[in-house]
Each structure stands twice: as C-alpha cells, then as structure tokens.
C-alpha cells in the first residue's frame, strides 16, 4: 500500500516515519491486511494538478515546467518562475505569470489562466556537488 502525504512547508523523513507508525497501528487494530506499507512525499518534481497547488507554488515563486493547451509564441512548454499576476492595486489575480530565460541576462514573461494548463510539475534546480572546502 502506498500513501503520499503533503503539507505546507514540505515533508521530512520523520513525518513519513510517524505516519507509517500510526497507520501500522490502525491497520493492526482494525485487522486490515497489507503486504507492505510505503509512506512518502510527492517528491521534488511533483506534479501540480489543482488550483491550490498553483496558488501555493506561485506564492513561493517556485521553478516549474508548464505545458499549455494552446501555444504561445509557437511554444507549448515553458520552464521558469511561477508567480501570480498582480492587479493594479497589487492584489493577486486569477492569472499566473511564468518568467523564463531566453538569453543570458534576458527574460521573458508569459501569462496564462489555470484552465490554459495541460500539465505542470515542479522543476527544481538540484545541486549534487555539495559544499566546496
């Protein structure tokens, strides 16, 4: 059995261990049989499926990959920083912005609504090099 957990601020290994222990106890008390229990997070490249996901990661200005239903500038797939488009009074609107690099030190921004998205996922930049000494 695979269980995926999530919350604002992210998931730690300790969170997964705690949920695993709690579920194991519940399954034992309720006589629910399972061969293996796997508790995990959605991952660093998690898919974004709901409007709530987009609102959450736009507020964090996360790096995402978005595939649009209809092309903009002859492209459907864009990777960049997700934001809410601000209205004239500074409040977030229903429209999202994605800022992406087109050349070194040159960026472009596209705008789209949630309904314009075919699929999307987080696209974090991971550094596996570690600290230099």
From TrEMBL:
One of its GO terms (biological process) is translation. Pfam families: DUF150_C, RimP_N. Residues 48-123 form the Ribosome maturation factor RimP C-terminal domain. Keywords: Cytoplasm, Ribosome biogenesis. It is found in: Cytoplasm. Residues 2-45 form the Ribosome maturation factor RimP N-terminal domain. GO terms for cellular component: cytosol. It comes from the Bacteria. Transmembrane segments: none annotated. HAMAP family: RimP. Required for maturation of 30S ribosomal subunits. PANTHER family: RIBOSOME MATURATION FACTOR RIMP (PTHR33867:SF1). Belongs to the RimP family. This is Ribosome maturation factor RimP. It comes from Advenella kashmirensis (strain DSM 17095 / LMG 22695 / WT001) (Tetrathiobacter kashmirensis).
């Amino acid at each position: 059995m695979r269980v995926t957990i999530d919350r604002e601020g992210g998931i730690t290994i300790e969170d997964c261990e705690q949920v695993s222990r709690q579920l194991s106890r519940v399954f034992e008390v309720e006589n629910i049989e399972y061969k293996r229990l796997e508790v995990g997070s959605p991952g660093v490249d998690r898919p974004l499926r709901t409007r709530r996901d987009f609102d959450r990661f736009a507020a964090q200005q996360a790096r995402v990959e978005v595939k649009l239903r209809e092309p903009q500038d002859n492209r459907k797939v864009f990777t960049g920083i997700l934001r809410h488009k601000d209205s004239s009074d500074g409040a977030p609107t229903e429209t999202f912005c994605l800022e992406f690099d087109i050349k070194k030190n040159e960026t472009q921004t596209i705008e789209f609504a949630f309904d314009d998205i075919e699929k999307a996922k987080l696209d974090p930049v991971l550094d596996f090099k570690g600290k230099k000494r």
